[in-house]
Amino acid sequence: MLLGAYRGAHLDVVGLTTPLPADRRHALWFDRRDRGHGGAAREAWRRSGGTVTCVGEWHSHTAGSASPSTRDLTTWRQILRKARGRQHLFLIVSPQDTNFVEGVGDGGGNARFRTRLGPPSAG
What we know:
Layout lengths: L1 E6 L2 E7 L7 E3 L2 E3 L4 H12 L5 E8 L9 H12 L5 E7 L4 E8 L5 E8 L5
Parallel strand pairs: 5-6
Antiparallel strand pairs: 1-2, 1-5, 3-4, 6-7, 7-8
């Protein structure tokens, strides 16, 4: 989960959660299931005085490209249906590249995605 704050037209990512024991992982997908992510988001909200919240999702593809799978797109659409017009960031990192996807839901079940694929980060 990506944690951050909405600042006008900008989205500031200030933290993230990492995989937890109940999450399900595969080389090409990630299924966030552990309740600890929600606890981290609630704690960030409390500590920030109500400004930091969940602003997106991230995961890695340990093999292949950072292109979103059908499962990724389905999950992202479900998130955006509940987002009520709020922008979200979806990030996939792989050994080949990094994919930054901005998603916006209209609150009515429709979602728009804008993608920027880049090289892997220097590490």
